[in-house]
Amino acid sequence: MKPLKNLIPVVLMLFLAVPGFSNDARPANTTPVTETNARAEVLVNRLEEIKAMDHSSMTRKEKRALRKEVKSIEKELKQIDEGGVYISVGGIIIILLLLILLL
After folding, report:
1. 40: closest CA among 79, 4, 6?
2. Secondary structure (3-state) at 3
3. Residues 14/94, Cβ–Cβ less than 8 Å
4. Alpha helices in the chain (DSSP H)
5. What does the pLDDT look like over 23-49, one tens digit per residue?
6. For the chain, which residues make up each domain, given as ranges?
7. CA–CA dist 103, 92 (Å, integer)
C-alpha cells in the first residue's frame, strides 16, 4: 500500500510536466480585435440584407449566387468566431481523478 501512495504524486507530477499541444492549423491572427468586430458587423448586416430580399422575383442563377454568398459569409464568420479553451492532458487527468475521488 505504501508504494502506491508514493506512486500517485509522482505520476501526477509527470503528467503536469508534459505540455499540451493543440492541432490549430489556422494562421496566427494578426488583425486587431476592432477590425475583426467591424468586419463581423458588416457580414452580419449583409446577411440581414439578403434575408430581407424578395427571392420570388429572382432568377435561378441569382438565387444560386446568393446562396453561395451566404455560405461564404457564414464560413468567414465562423473563422472570425473560432476560438476555444485548451486543456492540457495533465489537467484533464487531474480533473478526472478529482471527480473519481469526490464522487
Report:
1. 79
2. helix
3. no
4. 2-17, 33-52, 60-81, 89-102
5. 555 555 555 667 778 888 999 999 999
6. 32-94
7. 16
